[in-house]
DNA sequence: GTCTGTTTGAAACATACGTTTGACCGGCAG
DNA sequence: CTGCCGGTCAAACGTATGTTTCAAACAGAC
């Protein structure tokens, strides 16, 4: 047992269960019994369930945000003054995510699902935690997006970023289920990397959709 | 009190609270106290909390799926043999949603958020309920999408539909919060209809992204 | 008015939750 | 050996949940 792998066992079990079931739907007793540790260990090592949730995110997000900053550094250095393109920016992000050292084969998709849940489940404490801990790489990404789409108005860009976020979080958050369905229906195997490779062009195309298309059709009973 | 508006008061309160806080995070006591009815009324009229959740969805979804079928009928009649375009299909969907008779001004966005939650929160019973109750309009929509994008392979189309679903569910599920942020940061008011008007072109563009873009960049440490 | 079936009301039910407690163990400094 | 201290453990704490109970209130038919 070395010094105490209890902490890591709790984090592993919590990460997996949170991703499967959500935060409120996962009890400490589920976590501790899956981790094969005593119930009190969570409160002893982390203080509270909320603090455990934060720790699960921090374990992934802290090294990831460092990796991401490096990727952005490389990208901006390579572009040498010119703002990186939208495709380059999106790829820098997904490459950073995919290249993260992973504890097991489902590492990335588990964490994508957690991020999706963090946005969806109205856990106020989590949003606050994420915003104040990782605001720097986030706003840097936003700045790159802005420079890559100068033709968009601020409002258009704002909404399209939300659309991108939604497509990504939602897809990745249920990527396991979606992969299974595809496997059963069409007999096709898919990796997270391949999903990302399909997602990025979709996002880029949507982000750069022609403004002329923004006009809704004639407002009759149905489409024009 | 007529015959019994208790049922409706419960449904109204439940709908709003579920949308605000999620299903597990909303207790029957919150619902009944907001609805100003007795706690036991929920179990008396609906049988269980899960059945109440189903009833909330059915109250909106049943008339909506009828409206949607009509819209698809109109669309296919108008196109007269030719398959409707992607834009037409997406607009038929959003128009149907927007035109639904609403109990209050936030009707649509509340319900969009509920649909998003239904997909996100792993409430097995809800997914099962929705799938078996509303499979018909869903598969019809899928067929229209297929006919509108014949150039896509089945696998490409499958994933891009997931991306669309994600962008829509995610955006709508947090549309209140997103509207508030936009209001504060840029001082812009937005309606659900306007969000839809921005979303549809984004989805259509992403759906029809050039296949050539599907190739990832050179697999070096960063982007090519 | 009386009866009958339906709806409400206050209270209790059993269960599950997050958290706290205090005893216990094992290694290590004195 | 003694004393300590970080860590583990079983058990209990108080609270909140979904559900059930049963008496009271109500409506409409006769």
Describe this structure in words.
The structure is a homodimer of 224-residue chains. Chain A is an all-alpha fold and 224 residues long. Helix content of chain A is 72%, strand content 0%. Chain A contains eleven helices and no strands. The C terminus of chain A is likely disordered. Chains A and B meet through helix 4, helix 5, helix 6, helix 9 and helix 10 of A and helix 4, helix 5, helix 6, helix 9 and helix 10 of B. Chain B binds a DNA duplex (30 and 30 nucleotides) through helix 3.
List the helices and strands and how they pair.
Two copies of one chain form a homodimer.
Chain A (H helix, E strand, L loop, with lengths): L5 H16 L6 H8 L4 H6 L3 H31 L6 H14 L7 H14 L3 H10 L1 H14 L5 H20 L1 H12 L5 H16 L17
Helix pairs in contact in A: 1-2, 1-4, 1-6, 4-5, 4-7, 5-11, 6-9, 9-11
Chain B binds a DNA duplex (30 and 30 nucleotides) through α3.
Structural class of chain A: mainly alpha
* CATH T-level topology of the largest domain in chain A: Tetracycline Repressor, domain 2
CATH architecture of the largest domain in chain A: Orthogonal Bundle
**Radius of gyration computed on alpha carbons of chain A:** 20 Å
> Can you tell me the number of structural domains of chain A?
2
What is the rounded distance between the termini of chain A? 69 Å
Strand composition percent of chain A: under 5%
Keywords (chains A, B): DNA-binding
GO molecular function (chains A, B): DNA-binding transcription factor activity; transcription cis-regulatory region binding
InterPro entries (chains A, B): DNA-bd_HTH_TetR-type_CS (IPR023772), Homeodomain-like_sf (IPR009057), HTH-type_TetR-like_transc_reg (IPR050109), HTH_TetR (IPR001647), PsrA_TetR_C (IPR041586), Tet_transcr_reg_TetR-rel_C_sf (IPR036271)
Protein name (chains A, B): Transcriptional regulator
């Amino acid at each position: 047992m070395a010094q105490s792998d209890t902490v890591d066992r709790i984090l592993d079990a919590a990460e997996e269960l949170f991703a499967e079931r959500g935060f409120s739907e996962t009890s400490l007793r589920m976590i501790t019994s899956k981790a094969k540790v005593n119930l009190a260990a969570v409160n002893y090592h982390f203080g509270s369930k909320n603090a455990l949730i934060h720790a699960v995110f921090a374990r992934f997000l802290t090294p990831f945000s460092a990796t991401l900053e490096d990727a952005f550094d490389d990208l901006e250095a390579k572009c040498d003054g010119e703002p990186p393109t939208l495709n380059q920016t999106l790829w820098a992000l997904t490459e950073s995510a995919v290249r993260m050292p992973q504890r097991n084969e489902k590492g990335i998709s588990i964490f994508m699902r957690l991020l999706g849940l963090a946005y969806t489940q109205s856990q106020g404490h989590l949003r606050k935690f994420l915003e104040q801990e990782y605001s720097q790489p986030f706003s840097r990404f936003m700045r790159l997006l802005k420079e890559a789409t100068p033709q968009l108005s601020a409002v258009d860009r704002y909404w399209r970023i939300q659309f991108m976020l939604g497509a990504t979080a939602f897809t990745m958050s249920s990527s396991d289920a979606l992969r299974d369905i595809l496997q059963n229906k069409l007999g096709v195997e898919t990796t997270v990397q391949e999903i990302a490779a399909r997602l990025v062009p979709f996002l880029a195309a949507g982000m750069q959709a022609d403004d002329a298309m923004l006009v809704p059709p004639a407002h009759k009973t149905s489409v024009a």
